[in-house]
C-alpha cells in the first residue's frame, strides 16, 4: 500500500492500532528485560562453567592423586600379602616350636620330678652325712683337745685357731683368750739365758716359711715363761701344714720336759763321776806298769816283761773303751762342745800319724801321706784329731801285715777339705756296709780275725763329722781289696793361707 | 806333806789325792832327778803342820816344821796338780790361792793332770793361766815329765 493510497481507516481501527503498538512496546521492553536477564544468566552460566572447569580440574587432580594412592595401596597390599605369607610361615614354625616346647616342657616336668626326688634324697643324705661328719669332727676335736701333749694350731698368718687342754694347762692360758691372736706374740719363748726368742727365730715363724722345726737335743732347749715368771723347758715340734704346696698354717706339739731335764742332768753327772772313778784306777795300773816295764824298780825277766806288757795293753784298751764311752755319752747328751780355734790340719794330721807309727811299724804297713797345701782354718783340733785318729787306726788295724795304707788331705773345693784314707785291708762285707756306722757294730770279717775294736769309733766319727757340718762315706768293693774312707769338712773361716 | 829335796835340783810340788798315784809320781820324779814336795789337799800346801791342837794351840815343833815348809815352797819350780783333792777345795781353788801370792809364784808353771774332762773345768784352768792340762789316764808319766823338763829348761 503506498501513502498515496490513503485509505480511510476509521478511528476505531486507529485506536486498535495504538493499543497494538503499545502492546508491542511492552513486549519489546519485556524482551529487553528478558535479554538482560538472559545476558545475566549467560554471565552467571559463564561463571558457573569456569567454576565447573576449576572443579573439574580439581577433580582431575584429585583423580590423579587417587590413582597414585591406589597404586601405593596396591604396592602396600602386595607387601602386606608377602608379609602375611611370611607371617603364616612364621606362624607355622611357631606352631612347630610350640609343639617342641610343649614336649620339652613335658620332659622338663618329668625331669623336675625326678630332680625333686633326688634332691630330697640328697638332702636326706647330706643331713645324715653332715651329722656323721659332725660326730666325726667332734670326735677328732675331742681327740685333739685331749692329747696328752700340748697342741696349738695356727693359720697361715700365725693366728691361733686351736689350742688343746694340755696346752692351756701348760701355758696357763685360756682358749678364749688366745684364739685368733698371733701365736708368736701371745706365747713367748725364751732361751737358756732367759732371752725372749725373737719373732723371726720363733719356731712358728720358721714353720710358716715351710720348715719343720724341732728341738733336737737338750743343748738347745727352749723355755716357756709363765705368768708368775717361773718357766719350764719344752720339747717342741712345729710342722707347717701344707695344702697344694702352700703353707696354710702350722701345728705345734710340745711337752714339758722338766723331768727329762732332771734325768739328763743326773745322767751327765753320773757320766762325769763315772769317768773320774773309772779313770783313776786305770791311771794307777797304767803308771805302775809303766814304771815296772821301764825297769825303774829293777830288771824284769823276759817272761815277766811279756806278762806285764799284756797287763799294760789290756789296761790301755780299757782306757780307750772308757774314752769312747764318754765320747758317746757326750754326743748323745748333746754336751759335746765344739771349741774352734785356728788349726793347721796338715800339721795336726802329721802328729796323729807320728803317734801311730809304732803300730804301723809293728804291722809292717807301707804308709804314705800326701797332703796338699791347706790354709790355717777355724776348727776344733780335738775333734779333727779324733776323726783322723779313728780312721787311720782302723786302716792300720784292719790291714794285714805288710799291707798298704795311703792318706791324703786336700781341698775338695773352696769351701771343703777332704781327708781320704785307703787301705789294702780286709774290706767291709757288702751286706754289712749299711751297719758300719751304727753303735757297737763290728763287721763279721774283722771279728773273725784277731783284731780288737770297740765298735764305737766310726759311730763317734760320724756323729762328730756330721755335727761339724761334714760328710763321711766309704768305698769297699770286691774288685779292689781294702777300703777307702772319705771325710769332708766345711771350711767355716780361713785364718791364713 | 812329804819333802824330798836335793840342792841345785828343780823342785816339783805334787798335789794329788790318790795315795798310790801320788807315790808313783813322787817315785818317778825323784828318779828323774827332781826334788819333790807332795800334798793331798790345798790345805796341806798352805797350812802344813799349823793345825791347831784341840786346845787351840800350835805346838812349837810344828811352827819349826811350818817354817821349813815355807822355805821349801819358796824353791818350787813347777807344780803337778790334780783337780779333785782331799778336803773341800779343788785344784782351781789352789791355783787361785797360789797365784794370789803374786811375785815369783805367779810365774811358776802349773801342770794340771786330772781325770776330769769337762770343758768348763779345763777352760777355768786355762783362764787362770796354767801351762798345760792332761787327762790323766791318756798320758804316760814319761811324756808328762818330758813336757815339764822342756818347760823348765
Describe this structure in words.
- The complex is a heterodimer of chains A (497) and B (153).
- Chain A is α+β, with helices and mostly antiparallel strands and 497 residues long.
- Among the domains of chain A are: 150-256, PAS domain (Beta-Lactamase); 262-331, Helix Hairpins (Orthogonal Bundle); 338-496, Histidine kinase-like ATPase, C-terminal domain (Heat Shock Protein 90, 2-Layer Sandwich).
- Chain A is 56% helix and 17% strand.
- Chain A has helices at residues 11-146, 165-171, 175-178, 183-186, 203-208, 258-293, 302-333, 345-362, 381-397, 444-448, 457-467, and strands spanning 150-155, 160-163, 189-190, 213-214, 222-225, 231-243, 246-256, 341-343, 366-371, 376-379, 404-411, 416-423, 471-475, 484-490, 494-496.
- In chain A, strands 1, 2, 3, 4, 5, 6 and 7 form a 7-stranded antiparallel beta sheet that branches. In chain A, strands 9-11-12-14-13 form a 5-stranded mixed beta sheet.
- In chain A, a hairpin with a 2-residue loop joins strand 6 (231-243) and strand 7 (246-256).
- The longest helix of chain A is centred in the first third of the chain and has 136 residues, at 11-146.
- Chain A is rod-shaped, with a radius of gyration of 64 Å.
- The model of chain A has no long low-confidence stretch (mean pLDDT 87).
- Chain B is an alpha/beta fold and 153 residues long.
- Chain B has a single domain (2-152), classed as Response regulator (Rossmann fold).
- Chain B is 42% helix and 18% strand.
- Chain B has 6 helices and 6 strands.
- Chain B has a 6-stranded mixed beta sheet with strand order 1-3-2-4-5-6, with helices on both faces.
- The mean pLDDT of chain B is 84.
- Classes of the chains: A alpha+beta (497), B alpha/beta (153).
- Chains A and B meet through helix 6 and helix 7 of A and helix 1 of B.
Amino acid at each position: 500500500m503506498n501513502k498515496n493510497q490513503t485509505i480511510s481507516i476509521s478511528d476505531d481501527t486507529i485506536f486498535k492500532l495504538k493499543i497494538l503498538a503499545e502492546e508491542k512496546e511492552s513486549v519489546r521492553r519485556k524482551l529487553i528485560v528478558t535479554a538482560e536477564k538472559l545476558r545475566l544468566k549467560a554471565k552467571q552460566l559463564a561463571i558457573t562453567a569456569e567454576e565447573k572447569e576449576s572443579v573439574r580440574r580439581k577433580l582431575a587432580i584429585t583423580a590423579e592423586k587417587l590413582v597414585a594412592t591406589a597404586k601405593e595401596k596396591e604396592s602396600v597390599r602386595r607387601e602386606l600379602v608377602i608379609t602375611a605369607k611370611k607371617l603364616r610361615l612364621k606362624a607355622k614354625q611357631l606352631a612347630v616350636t610350640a609343639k617342641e616346647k610343649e614336649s620339652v616342657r613335658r620332659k622338663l616336668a618329668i625331669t623336675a620330678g625326678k630332680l625333686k626326688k633326688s634332691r630330697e634324697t640328697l638332702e636326706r643324705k647330706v643331713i645324715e652325712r653332715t651329722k656323721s661328719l659332725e660326730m666325726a669332727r667332734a670326735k677328732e676335736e675331742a681327740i685333739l683337745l685331749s692329747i696328752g701333749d700340748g697342741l696349738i694350731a695356727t693359720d697361715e698368718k700365725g693366728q691361733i685357731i686351736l689350742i688343746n687342754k694340755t696346752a692351756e694347762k701348760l701355758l696357763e692360758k685360756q682358749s678364749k683368750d688366745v684364739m685368733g691372736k698371733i701365736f708368736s706374740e701371745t706365747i713367748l719363748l725364751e732361751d737358756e739365758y732367759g732371752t725372749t726368742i725373737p719373732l723371726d727365730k720363733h719356731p712358728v715363724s720358721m714353720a710358716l716359711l715351710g720348715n719343720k722345726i724341732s728341738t733336737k737335743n737338750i743343748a738347745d732347749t727352749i723355755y716357756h715363761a709363765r705368768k708368775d715368771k717361773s718357766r719350764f723347758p719344752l720339747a717342741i715340734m712345729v710342722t707347717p701344714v701344707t695344702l697344694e704346696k702352700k703353707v696354710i698354717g702350722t701345728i705345734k706339739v710340745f711337752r714339758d720336759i722338766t723331768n727329762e731335764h732332771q734325768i739328763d742332768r743326773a745322767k751327765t753327772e753320773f757320766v762325769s763321776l763315772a769317768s773320774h772313778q773309772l779313770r783313776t784306777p786305770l791311771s794307777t795300773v797304767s803308771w805302775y806298769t809303766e814304771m815296772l816295764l821301764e825297769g825303774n824298780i829293777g830288771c824284769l825277766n823276759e817272761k815277766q816283761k811279756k806278762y806285764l806288757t799284756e797287763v799294760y795293753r789290756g789296761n790301755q784298751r780299757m782306757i780307750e773303751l772308757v774314752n769312747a764311752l764318754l765320747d758317746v755319752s757326750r754326743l748323745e747328751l748333746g754336751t759335746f762342745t765344739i771349741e774352734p780355734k785356728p788349726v793347721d790340719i796338715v800339721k795336726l794330721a802329721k802328729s796323729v800319724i807320728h803317734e801311730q807309727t809304732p803300730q804301723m811299724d809293728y804291722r809292717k804297713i807301707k804308709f804314705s801321706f800326701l797332703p796338699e797345701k791347706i790354709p790355717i782354718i777355724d776348727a776344733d783340733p780335738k775333734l779333727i784329731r779324733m776323726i783322723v785318729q779313728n780312721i787311720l787306726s782302723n786302716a792300720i788295724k784292719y790291714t794285714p801285715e805288710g799291707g798298704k795304707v795311703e792318706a791324703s788331705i786336700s781341698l775338695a773345693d773352696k769351701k771343703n777339705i777332704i781327708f781320704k784314707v785307703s787301705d789294702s785291708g780286709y774290706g767291709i762285707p757288702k751286706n754289712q756296709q749299711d751297719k758300719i756306722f751304727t753303735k757297737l757294730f763290728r763287721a763279721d770279717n774283722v771279728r773273725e780275725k784277731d783284731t780288737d775294736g770297740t765298735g764305737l769309733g766310726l759311730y763317734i766319727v760320724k756323729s762328730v763329722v756330721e755335727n761339724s757340718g761334714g760328710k763321711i762315706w766309704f768305698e769297699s768293693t770286691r774288685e779292689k781289696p781294702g777300703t777307702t774312707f772319705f771325710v769332708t769338712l766345711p771350711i767355716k773361716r780361713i785364718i791364713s793361707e | 806333806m812329804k819333802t824330798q829335796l836335793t840342792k841345785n835340783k828343780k823342785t816339783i810340788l805334787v798335789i794329788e789325792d790318790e795315795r798310790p798315784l801320788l807315790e808313783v809320781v813322787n817315785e818317778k820324779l825323784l828318779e828323774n832327778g827332781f826334788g819333790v814336795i807332795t800334798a793331798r789337799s790345798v790345805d796341806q800346801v798352805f797350812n802344813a803342820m799349823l793345825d791347831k791342837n784341840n786346845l787351840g794351840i800350835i805346838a812349837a815343833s810344828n811352827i819349826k816344821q811350818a817354817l821349813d815348809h815355807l822355805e821349801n815352797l819358796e824353791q818350787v819350780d813347777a807344780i803337778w796338780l790334780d783337780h779333785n783333792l782331799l778336803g773341800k777345795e779343788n785344784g782351781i781353788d789352789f791355783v787361785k790361792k797360789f797365784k794370789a801370792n803374786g811375785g815369783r809364784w805367779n810365774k811358776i808353771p802349773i801342770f794340771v793332770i786330772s781325770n776330769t774332762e769337762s770343758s768348763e773345768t779345763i777352760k777355768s784352768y786355762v783362764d787362770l793361766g796354767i801351762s798345760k792340762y792332761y787327762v790323766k789316764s791318756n798320758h804316760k808319766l814319761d811324756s808328762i815329765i818330758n813336757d815339764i823338763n822342756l818347760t823348765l829348761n
